[in-house]
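pasting for ref. prot 1 ->
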Amino acid sequence: MLGATLEDYELFIYALQDEYPVIREATLTVIRQASNVATVEGALYFDAGVRLQVVEVVRFDVIPPRLSRYGYEIWRNNEKLYWYDPQGHPNDPTLAATHPHHKHIPPDIKHHRIPAPGLSFTEPNLPFLICEIAALINDPTVSTPA
């Protein structure tokens, strides 16, 4: 779960670099929109020129707390490798298993989409993404979250 309060999620965000040493630099910022709604924006930087651009809107004014919107882009230097978003594609039966969560991948990154079973609106997505990036850059010290 995202945590009981916005403060819990804020602590989670600001502790990511301590929890995952594979992160070389973190510029994520929690921007409060209201007492129980915030936007998370910024990037996590890894070896090999890889970075994860993050945009999340997190809401604690609903039960259970949830991400109401997200976008995650993975870059290597100036090349976008892939991205995740929850924009629905109900006419694409190949995405039904994880609707609306999906991943855009090459060769036609805008139109080539696959299911994204590791993403959720009610669980933090960043541990999954950090582990995926650690595997991409071959960092064996990071294991997939339980």
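and prot 2 ->
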Amino acid sequence: MLRTLACIILVAGTFCVHSSFGQQGKAERIKLHKKYVDEIAAIAEDPAVRSAFEIAEKTDPRTIQDLVLLTGIPAPPFKEEKRGEKFASMLSEAGIDSVWTDGVGNVIGLRKGTVRKRAVMVDAHLDTVFPEETDVRVSTSGDTLKAPGIGDDTRGLAVLLAGLRAMNQSGIKTDADVLFAATVGEEGLGDLRGVKHLFGSSGPKIDAHIALDGVSIGGIVNSTVGSIRYRVTFSGPGGHSYGAFGLANPHNALAGTISRFVEEADIYTRAGIKTTYNIGVIGGGTSVNAVPFESWMEVDMRSESPERLKGLDDIFRNAVAKALDRENEIKRMGEDLTVDIRQVGDRPSGSIAEDSPLVQRTAASAALLGAVPLLGASSTNSNTPLALGIPSVTIGTGGKAGGAHSLDEWFLNEDGYLGVHHMLLVMLSEAGISK
């Protein structure tokens, strides 16, 4: 049910939803400006848009069928091809003007505008966090759908298709071109490679960007969390724990790094803009009675502030250097240890002001649909365009979901069609409706 708003000030609060929106926890209040409230209300009252809304609601069972179908196609990290191929064929069947797959595997569909001076992209990511052998077939428990990846972010792909069909069947024409994209590499060590490619020198022209990730219609990501990730490997000759005692030990250097880093990082991150660190994975060694020939770890550091993230990065690199020097100093025989610091992740940070047109339009849309719009920071496909100064928000896709990144992930289609309405309102407010 749509409701008309004059002007509303929303109080700050806490929201917790599935996927990346839940990472930041606290939301910020936003003051809606009447200009944008009126603009969104006018779009919602447009006859073609009202028709699109009705179509989205009527065809919601088809959207759920798409969700089940796509969820059941594995899309593990760096292996999104099969899901991408199917999504491309579904875009074609839905009536996109043209569709192609770019050099890194992004699937892009173009719906031409009538003026074509601007281009608005709406995207959801193809990849999940689950390895190739994971059973991703959808099961049901009452009215709840269960499968790894069903919410994060296969739901976004289904909403893209539903929005495209609703536009075509209702006859909506836009001034700007609209690009419907399914991106690769949003999760983990994918390091946003899909969206980075789209906004690189070989990508299409994009003037505004809307990412679909998470389900809460009220949740709006307008500030991004940047991250730096490393795989650090200490290497040495290795040998027998008794016969070769005195060799430099890679495990000692790794432990020394962690000890030094955590001690300084703990002090550094207790004040200022939220900045975090995590030693997520460690490995190495062959036997309890063997000096290891290598020891490695993967490290994640995050912050909304590039300056704070750089400071934490300096602390980490200094800890590695000191631990390496110390282990080489105390060895009694053999070669020095070496260290390889390989960067495996670099997510830029950026933000867009709450009084910017895109944020105001997104918030006004959420409010019109009965949600409480709350701003937050997270790491999503919006990181890259915002770092480049291109307007971008990440919005929810409707319904309820939970258990993201777990085998128990679930989706409940409670008024899920409102997610399609939300996407249409935000996108049309940026692309313009041709009369």
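Residues 19-224+349-431 form a domain with the Aminopeptidase fold (CATH 3.40.630.10).
Residues 48 and 172 are 6 Å apart (CA to CA).
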